[in-house]
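Q: How would the structure tokens look for this protein?
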Amino acid sequence: FEKLFTIKEVADYLIIKDEIVRRYIREGKLKAVKINGKEFRIKKSALTEFMTNMEQDKSFLRWHVDFVINL
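A: Here is the predicted structure in token form.
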């Protein structure tokens, strides 16, 4: 079975707020599966794909690097 992450785990890993992860899911940028009719889980492969796509988006990468540096 493939590892599944919660929204909180993904947010913590990316150093962003949970709501931003939810927005990426709503916008279709991050694929997620719904469990229990309301909770989302993100497959490891979907997270890897998302990160690859975001690395190619220079504005996202620049924001993320600046944010992490300023922590």
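The chain has a mean pLDDT of 84.

The longest strand covers residues 39-43.

Upvote if useful.
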